[in-house]
Amino acid sequence: MRRRPVLPSHHDDTEKGGGKPPQSRLCFLATLCVMFWVLIFYFHFSVLASDPEGPPVAVATEARIARDDHPFPVPDRVSDPALASPAIASEPPPATIPKKEEEEEPSAVVHLQEPPPKEYPFQRALKTAENESDPCGGRYIYVHELPPRFNEDMLRECQRLSLWTNMCKFMSNDGLGPPLDNEEGVFSSTGWHATNQFAVDVIFGNRMKQYECLTNDSSIAAAVFVPFYAGFDVARYLWGYNISMRDAASHDLVDWLRKRPEWDVMGGRDHFLVGGRIAWDFRRLTDEESDWGNKLLFMPAAKNMSMLVVESSPWSANDFAVPYPTYFHPAKDADVFVWQDRMRNLERPWLFSFAGAPRPGDPMSIRGKLIDQCRTSNFCILLECDLGESKCHSPSAIMKMFQSSLFCLQPQGDSYTRRSAFDSMLAGCIPVFFHPGSAYVQYTWHLPKNYTRYSVFIPEGGIRKGNVSVEEILRSIHPDVVKQMREEVINLIPRVIYADPRSKLETLKDAFDVSVGAIINKVTQMRRDIVSNSEDQDFVEENSWKYALLEEGQRTIGPHEWDPFFSKPKDKGADSSNSSAGAAKNSWKIEQGEQN
After folding, report:
1. CA pair distance 386, 381, nearest whole angstrom
2. How far is CA 586 from the centre of its chain?
3. Could you give the count of Cα atoms lying within 13 Å of 125 in the half-sphere of its Cβ?
4. What's the CA gap between 128 and 124, in Å, rounded?
5. Which of 12, 52, 106, 463 makes an SS bond possible with 72, Cβ 3.0 to 4.6 Å?
6. Per-residue pLDDT tens digits of the chain, which is 596 residues long
7. Which domain of life is it from (predicted)?
8. Distance, CA of 558 to CA of 451 (rounded, Å)
9. Do residues 359 and 480 lie in contact, with contact meaning Cβ atoms separated by under 8 Å?
């Protein structure tokens, strides 16, 4: 019997199942399929996603699209080995991007660190002004301890200070001079002295000794005072000495100052000193023996300092005018108030007055014209002066005339200014000026910039031509306006006098206080401008007189109504020109003859 061949077992199962594979085979195939896809997803999400430098897979497409619009170049991720097929064991590992290149990716934000603000050695002094509990904050003054040859030795040799006058008597009472007799009752009971008009050096120096905010710590000082008697120094050697002798003390002073640490703070720009003479005495331009004065204000180092003089140069930036000393030096506020009330209540029978002498040798002088007008007027009182004996040499005669007048004529003297202007204001007399250089561009710290409040201005050109009448102009001013102007003058009295250095006014500010305050403000503003890098780079020194007339905060200058008076410095721009030097020489006639 032929036996049937044995078929594979699965064939039998198929037949038994009606042609369908058994259930166990289907499960096996499904399991293989699931495992296959599990491996695929595991490789996709685990192996590829493990690249820390690559973007998440979910945003890979978006990253590639965004790369096309990125403003900075982005590395091409397609060529990145991390996204390629896994490397074979025999292949070298894929190269990695150097760290330096990673840091230079343009997408990184670079923060530039600003440099720290610059520190200045004077900033501690500026900060003292912010201390509200310190009454001297921002007001401290440091005073150099100069060798006595610069000050006290001059006083011990006071007989050498003037060729014609023994100045020793004027050095008494701390520079005020001997007390004045009051036989005619012109003065008040106390505070009146025969003060020399060139004594500001010693008066100012002694007042500084009483200043309430002196300090030995220069780092907190708002300004530095140099107690050099510059006016007395130049007075010793003006006549009969060569220029080396005239300049010797000034050179010595500058050398001494430049060795001091205080000088290095600002190169001397925070230093100030006093020279109680007109600026032309310190502005010798040449080294000719015949030229006038010394070179103190032209020395490069000294030009950084501020110098207080009784008359400044309109075209120079380093000298500032302070009032001439008068005869009145009150010890307390009450002395001032009593005097002011007395001036308010005086009867003034004369419309105007003039005290002075003609200048026949000066064709530009209008003094002769004014004297002629006064002589022919029924409203003017005249006190004529010459080199001989006259009432012009008597303080009581001068003050008595001023007290009897509503207006006092103040033309130029041998230079722009006159002591007489301050004597007349002290008497409550309204000054009449004929040149802006006589007061308006000079005493800008002490007098209102609106000169019409306290004075009358009549340009001298009309007087010189003879077509202007002083009497007519003054009579045309309404009495109410005259009263207001006189009140303004009387209120200005404290600011134009120097109080007794041996005492201190309680509430009023005298000429010393005003001057020191102005210097402090000047230095403080300069320091702030340096810190803020806002110094005026367009400053023109020849226009210094214009800057002095600007209101606080203003810096821009332009054409001015007084340009014709100051069109150019005299004689080719030289402060030490023949005309200026001549004026300085002539001013010594005042001392020689003690005339006004």
Report:
1. 17
2. 33
3. 30
4. 7
5. 106
6. 334 343 344 444 444 444 444 556 666 676 777 777 666 766 555 555 444 444 444 433 343 333 444 443 433 433 444 434 333 333 444 444 444 444 444 555 556 666 777 889 999 999 998 888 999 999 999 999 999 999 999 999 999 888 888 899 999 999 999 999 998 999 999 999 999 999 999 999 999 999 999 999 999 999 999 999 999 999 999 888 999 999 999 999 999 999 999 999 999 999 999 999 999 999 998 999 989 999 999 999 999 999 999 999 999 999 999 999 999 999 999 999 999 999 999 999 999 999 998 888 888 899 999 999 999 999 999 998 875 556 778 999 999 999 999 999 999 988 999 999 999 999 999 999 999 999 999 999 999 999 999 999 999 999 999 999 999 999 999 999 999 999 999 999 999 999 999 998 999 999 999 999 999 999 999 999 999 988 888 888 899 999 899 887 777 888 999 999 998 654 433 443 445 555 555 555 444 444 34
7. Eukaryota
8. 19
9. no
- Per-residue CA distances from 391 to 161, 388, 410 (Å): 25, 10, 18
Closest listed residue to residue 98, CA positions, set 78, 79, 75: 75
Q: Which three-class secondary structure state does DSSP give residue 151?
A: coil
Q: How many residues are there in the chain?
A: 596
Alpha helices in 110-224 (DSSP H): 123-128, 152-156, 172-175, 200-209
Phi, psi of 270 (to 5 degrees): -100, 10
How many angstroms separate the CA atoms of 315 and 507, rounded? Answer: 35
Cα–Cα dist 82/96, whole Å: 9
Distances (CA, A) of 137 to 129, 212, 271, 520, 532: 4, 12, 18, 11, 21
Give the separation between CA 154 and CA 167, rounded to whole angstroms. 11
In DSSP notation, 111-138 reads: -PPPPPPPP-TTHHHHHHTT-TT-TTTT
| 3-class state of residue 596 by DSSP | coil
Which segments of 387-476 are extended strands (E)?
405-410, 430-433, 456-457
Looking up tokens 């009146």 gives 192
